[in-house]
Design goal:
This protein has helices at about 10-40, 40-45, 50-80, 90-100, 105-115, 120-125, 135-160, 165-170, 175-205, 210-215, 225-235, 235-260, and strands spanning about 270, 275. The protein has about 280 residues and is an all-alpha fold. The two termini are about 40 Å apart.
């Protein structure tokens, strides 16, 4: 890379600051992974029942939370992308709120909503449903904090789809559901995939809301981030480092894999049994 290629005047400064920013972001996590691998702690962590259970729990709960976000978040993203309506700014602010809230505050809010003395908790208790300090609480905490990352990205992707293509599909007789499935969804697929990755990554790393709302129960609510915290608190630094390295490698691997995907779907509209581009 040459300084001319990144901006002409001041290009050297841009490169220098970029390198410093990259080093600041990369060196701590690379150093952590290197120490875990070089010291052999990561091998011991993988064979540890506690870490394996936490990893399985993390993967299972994040898969469920991602599914919930996609199912309920996609219609909301579509609504926000379709145009302005009265109160749209309030809706967007509500969607963005979990991003700026401290995770501990999010966990406390969920506890006050679903706890035994909460707004819905009493009725749920009478129905025999207990949410706090269960695996379901982990899923809800992850869903709450991660949903905005998918909804915001999906809204941007959907709103960027050419309206003329959608109108053309309607003119050919396609129903609204077919327009979304055959035109909007394929063209917005890269943004949706990016949103899903961001959502999953945020859910995988969730800590504050989980420990406040779900607790830190081994085999029940202790996800991998909570293992990092628990091992550090107990004085086992190497085990904490190893668990953290597993988290980093898992998240990094998924991010790299998704960025290598190529989406080449050509939207088609089925009218009268004929697929038309």
């Amino acid at each position: 890379m040459t300084t001319r290629s990144v901006g002409g005047v001041g290009g050297a400064g841009v490169v220098g600051l970029s390198v410093l920013a990259l080093l600041f972001l990369a060196v701590p996590v690379v150093g952590l992974v290197v120490r875990a691998v070089a010291g052999g702690a990561i091998v011991e962590a993988v064979t540890s029942p506690a870490v394996r259970d936490a990893l399985v729990l993390s993967l299972a709960t994040t898969a469920v939370s991602l599914a919930l976000v996609v199912i309920f978040g996609t219609p909301l993203a579509l609504l926000l992308a379709r145009g302005t309506f009265r109160g749209s700014s309030v809706v967007e602010s509500i969607v963005d709120l979990p991003i700026v809230l401290p995770p501990a505050v999010a966990g406390l809010a969920l506890l006050l909503m679903f706890g035994r003395s909460g707004v819905l908790g009493g009725a749920l208790e009478l129905a025999g449903i207990r949410i706090p300090f269960t695996t379901l609480a982990v899923v809800l905490a992850q869903t709450f904090v991660a949903a905005p990352f998918f909804i915001r990205t999906a809204r941007t992707g959907i709103s960027s789809v050419d309206r003329q293509l959608q109108d053309a599909a309607r003119d050919l007789g396609a129903e609204e559901s077919s327009v979304f499935r055959r035109v909007t969804l394929p063209l917005a697929a890269p943004a949706l995939a990016t949103g899903m990755v961001l959502c999953w990554s945020r859910a995988l790393g969730e800590f504050g809301a989980t420990i406040m709302f779900a607790g830190n129960l081994p085999g029940v609510t202790r996800t991998l981030p909570l293992v990092v915290y628990s091992e550090f608190q107990s004085g086992d630094l190497e085990a904490s480092i190893a668990a953290a390295a597993i988290l980093i490698l898992a998240a990094f691997g998924v991010l790299v894999a998704v960025r290598r995907l190529r989406w080449g779907v050509t939207p088609t509209v089925r009218t009268g049994g004929i697929d038309r581009p």
